[in-house]
Amino acid sequence: MTAGPPLPTPHAAPPLPAPERTKHRLLELLKRHGPQTVQDLAGHLGVSVPGARRHLLDLQDQGLIEARTERPGGRGRPQHVFLLTDRGEAAFPKTYSLLCLDVLRHVQTLFGEGAALQVLDARSAELAGQLAAELPDNLAPEERVRAFAAWLTGMGYDAVTEQDEDGTWFIVERNCPNLTVARQYPELCRSELGLFVQVLGLPVTRETRIACGQGSCRYRIGS
To answer: What is the dihedral of CA 184, 197, 125, 127, to 10 degrees?
Structure first.
């Protein structure tokens, strides 16, 4: 009896190229140990200082790390250290959405169905109050729309402004940083719409919504 052809073996995912593996290890070291000098990082990795510096510059260009000057232990000569940016921190797993879901679920269980929206509306009102200093009343409407879109981008929404042929302005959010929560609690999206109205002082209509499977959250500004 002859043996049949060998069974195919599953293909493992190709390993990362060596430079990318080194960059990944650099990020892990900064995550675990906090700010580090290039000499410290090179020693941990077993590479030359110039080699480590090249990888660090690449990571800086990607916005994943930043450099600052500090004194070790508050004393001694200042030295340059590298640390993760918010974007670099975001590359590591987080459970913020699960925590938020748990909190909202308990809020509704303890205080009733409308309680989650009340909490989220209170948050929106607080954010609108904070934005009042950045968006003074004397701003022209189009300047206010652009400034608000820039603030939204800083909050992770990747927002852009558009203007129709008839002069109508739109804010388009191309990312939803709270998508997991928004899909289970539409109150979050209702509260966000209220924030738009409070900040812009104009009627706002949401035409599309990422949480409903569409490609963006598109807000029409004005009637």
So the answer is: 90
The two tokens of residue 154 are 């800083």
Cα–chain center distance at 136 = 26
18-90, CATH topology level: Arc Repressor Mutant, subunit A (1.10.10)
What is the C-alpha radius of gyration for the chain, rounded to an integer number of angstroms? 24
Q: Whole-prediction pTM value?
A: 0.64
Provide long-range contacts, Cβ within 8 A and 24+ apart, for 178-181.
Answer: 178/97, 178/100, 179/210, 179/211, 180/97, 180/98, 180/101, 181/97, 181/100, 181/101, 181/104
Per-block mean pLDDT, blocks of 10 residues, the chain (223 long): 46 54 91 90 94 94 91 72 87 80 95 95 96 88 94 93 94 93 95 96 95 94 85
For residues 160 and 174, the answer to whether their CB atoms sit within 8 Å is: yes
The 3-state DSSP class for residue 81 equals strand
In whole angstroms, what is the distance from residue 159 CA to residue 171 CA? 7
Topology at the third CATH level for domain 96-221: H-NOX domain (3.90.1520)
**Domain locations along the chain:** 18-90, 96-221
